[in-house]
Amino acid sequence: MTASITDPSKAKSLSSAVTVSALAAGQTLAFTGYSSTTDIVGGGSLVLQRGDWSSGSFVANSSLASTNLTVTETDTLASLRDKINALNYGVTASIIGAGDDTFNLVLKSGEGKENALRITATESPSGSGLSSIDNSTTNSSKQKIAGADASLVVDGMTLTRSSNIITDLFEGYTVNLVSTTSSTANLTSSVDINSATTNLESLVTAINSLKTILNTKTFSGDSSTEKGELADDPVIESLKNQIDTLTTSALSGFGSSNVYLSNLGVRTERSGLLTLNTTVLENTLKNNPSSFDAIFNSMYSAESSLLSVSGGTNSSPKPGTYAFAMTAYISGAFTGLASNDTTPGVTSSNNTIQVTVDGVTSGTVTVPAAEYSSESALATAIQTAINADSTLSTSGKSVVVTHSNGSYSITSGSTGSSTSVVIDAIGSNLNGFLKMSGAADADALVTSQSGTASSALSLATSLNDSVGKRISITSAGGNESGYTFTVVGTDLSGNDQTEVITGPAASATVFGSKTFKTISSITPSSNSSGAITIGTTGAGITTSGVTGSATLDSVAMSADISNNIFTSTSGNAAGLKVKYSGLGASGSVYYGQSLLDKLTSYITTSLNNSGSGSVENRITTLNSELTKQNDLLSELDTRFESTRSRYMQQFGAMESAVTSLKSTGEYLTNLFESMNNND
Hints:
By secondary structure, the chain is an alpha+beta fold.
């Protein structure tokens, strides 16, 4: 047995005594006697249904719909295996050689006793042979391993689970059962303070190293130390300030209170560098271990256990706390009148009920006769009986039955505006406790008269009821189930309203689902027996389902009704997704971005090679400026050479002129001397 943390925000120190008496197992079925994998299995269809065989008879799993598989007359044992696997129904098919030149089709279901398999074969044509793959009535001869739940004792409490991987035993943990135990084992977990200290010390060292480099490069200089290469650079100064801000600011979104580095013993010294007080860290981890997540683990979490939170793929919400409110997400329901029999005793007669759930009508459901210990126990028995109905389970419909505030309620297992529950018929003994229907002929609108097809019956009593009434139709002897009765009147708002009700069987009562304030006419579809009484009943309240809506910080969210997910599409929370697993779930939801992720994100953005980062932009700017200066220098070099050449030319010309002038001067001197001598 092992345990791993799956939600650090909810995982606390753990210490429990656990005994594992049985592991969960999947059912194994074997259909034998095939001589080859290419044997033809026969044409027709197979209905695969999951449920519980532990009582010897099959009880359908109401949360899992059945599935149909068409088998052709050319399908072999191998192709049937492949078709079953392609269903993705939680059943694995394989072919195993028996060792006596025969082959077996082996089917394995998922873990848990309610995941066992019932296969009902219908041959087409008759006698095709497909019926050999059928365990609808002979499960024991086909079953090699029975589906079973895991059984364990946790701190003295006996528990069962359908899987060996258990996610709901300890909050924030997943427990994996790998074997049974002969004695009690102690399952413990605690915060590894040594590892936490080492990891935080490493982070502090890395931050200090970065700060030291930046401080050196941006040093303004003094009498003894030269100015840093990046002194006065605005981008690098901004980078330094941002890192200082990140290490001193609150880390929000990790619960109702902000987390600071100082809470974990990290202090900023006057030098700007960080130090770690391990004593403070240890005390914090002992008292509030989840606060450590604010350093290393970004996470989504919720105040309510009925909510789960995640982020979007196209946008990132701002870390923080957000108020989630689900304003309307209601399942259709039917609630009876006040009933407070604390030990309801259901008899073996008149203990049936028939319901229509989301438009799908059940068969006649029998509630087990028993002396129940409480109203809640009876509610559970009714829920189990209704959900075992094959018509409902095949259609994927289910109900939740509760007793609260003094009344029984039957609620659709689905949510949204298309959900509803209608009580079609109920036995008198069962109704004595549920009070889903009152006297069948209260008000006696119509009494024992023969009706003519398409002609309205004569109303013996008018109806004008401020709280509304439902129609009841009772047959004293004739079978009216092949006829319908069209009721015309108004609803509580005065709007025209029509309801078509299928008549009752002999000596039975049926009830309408709509609430009438007035009745103007009741018309049978065919000649009635004349032994019917039509009245009203005030018992029972029908609630229609309401499409979901929710807000986050009072801003409307988009709704994915089929998946019970609300998404924030604007503002700071844009991209935040909230999934609910229970009606009325509201409360704070959180997104916390860890210090490590904040630092990584900021540094990555600053150094972004795409050019969007501030440092990268600064490098680009400096490179551009360097290019300009180099171009200017090259231009100056060219101009210098041109000027030098011109000056050299001028110098040569000047030197030639000087030489000529000297020669002329010497000639004139000699001439003057010669002239003077002649004189």
